Sequence to fold (669 residues):
Amino acid sequence: MKKITTLLAVFITFLTTVQAQKQELGNVSIEELKEKTHPKDSSAVAAFIFKKGKTSFAYNQNEGFSIVTEVEMKIKFYKKEGYEWANISLPVYIGGNSKETVTFSKAVTYNLINGQIEKTKAKSENEFSEQKNKYWGLRKITMPNVKEGSIIELKYSVYSPYISNFPEWKFQKTIPVNFSEYTTDIPEYFIYNVHRKGALFPIETKEKLSKMIRLDERYSSVNRQVGYLHDVENVNYMDNRTVYKLENIPAISEESYVNNMDNYTPSVILEHSGTQFPQKAYVGYSSTWEDVSKNIYENDDFGSQLDKNNYFEEALKNLLQGLTSNEDKINAIFNFVKSRMTWNKYFSYACDAGVKKAYQDMTGNTADINLMLVSMLRYANLESNPVLVSTRANGIALYPSRSAFNTVIASVVLDDKIVLLDATSKNALPNILPLRDLNWFGRIIRKDGTSDMVNLMPESASQDVVNIIATLDSSGQVTGKLREQYLDYDALRFRENYAGLAKDAIVEKIEKKHSGLEIENYELINDIDTDESVIEKYSFRNGNASEIVSDKIYISPLLQLESSENPFKQELREFPIDFSFPNKEKYMISLTIPDGYQVESMPKSIAIAMDKGYGNFSFTSSNTNNQLQINVVLNINTSIIPAEDYGTLKEFYKLITEKETEKIVIKKI
Fold:
């Protein structure tokens, strides 16, 4: 019995050692290279065998503490579609006096060639840098000789002099992750709030480690004959270590109508909330939304910019002359800023050039332009305040942090209601913000230092209205005229999607979207005049809207506009469904059938609605003297539907798709 117990212990030790070796660089086996599919996900194009990271603090006597993040990863490639994972891109902050740096210390591709393991090391030409804007750059590496079956190993270090720029560790990817581990070693002097995202929770272990830094202070002696003396001091402190581990992490599923997948990716985020050095007073940073707002407002590149007005006084006096209503003043100032200023594509809640210089140069970042707008509205004696926003690409502002927001817009009170404005978009209107701003909640900051959350999501429905008058001939061809009108956010989205495109290019896009459609006499109205709805008009011919079988013609009731498939196909939904804004789609179609034919059957009229008032759909059809009338209305009454109501939404769209794909059957007399 003792012998069996000993053998079992040896076996367990062996398995533990093998598992540990799989999570170390330099241990690539022939068996791993031979593996054709992922053992738990046969559809996986690639997988992380492991990814391990560690963020710790380094001390330099001249510069103080900085943070260093070391990452090791090992990736297996199963299919060509996974090759994108061989291109690693790392963001680095380059906007300050000191810059972040990235060093690749190991980069090797392994292949199995004639039964032997072949190594290909990355060379200097595989590494390169790219500047995204004046604040951020990218450090990139492309792994060499990657094929189906390859394994790559990569090790890199990121040095940052900014201890507030703690990296976010994402455990889940769009490919499986067999093992993920993240370690933080934080000196006792620094306090960080730990925030977690996603539905998967890593196992955490904590311990304290004794550390030491050596202070070597050189100073000049009063007695110059003595020369320079050195005073050496060792300072002991405690490191707080936390290790986060997750294993067998499935690939995160891409789902339609998702705001930003990063909002739901299982992650650990550390926010610097305070510093406590020995014999020093505690220095606290943002811990509540009020603290965040106050800290930002008191920044010279924010609050003080709102008090400057001498640079625009003369222009505003002329602009406001004769205007009596607050609404007219708001529109005049908003349009003035939109037309004068050009956004330089940089997001920030802090001014870059400053409002005065931006006004003179007629260009600026989001803060330069929108803080200028707030200042002008205040000059006109209107109640206006800035609103901090996190764009959709930046993620939802889930917890109080100075980095939770990345831009700012304007607000103004009109008839006791808050109106939101963003002058960085030429297509924006009061309460019609650029789509990037529609990200749940922003935070309004007032002069007195108070702040409140502000709902950024639209409450009233935008509209897309289509009228078609068409004729079907005996060969199955449909010819007709279409008029489509876009209002509010539908109009803004149209203008942003098609801004600057020639009419021929727009026609090409429409024809590509609807197979078999040929367009003539295309006309576009109000594509620039934002005070009016956008209108498209054109004549068309469509040979794909019908099918002839024997003496019958089967035709889609919505012609080229039918929803051919349900956009919600997954059995389960993990994330909220984000439609961006409430919307009403309305289709009114009049179709004349050819002489010598009669209607054998038509889709029946129906009306359906989702629970909780999320949406409703109606389809009505009629036939009078071979003149068919089809009216369809789809209302989505909310911007966001919770994931728990996904089943209701999926069934709703299933019924819509079934109805819109039913055929009108026309029979030869």
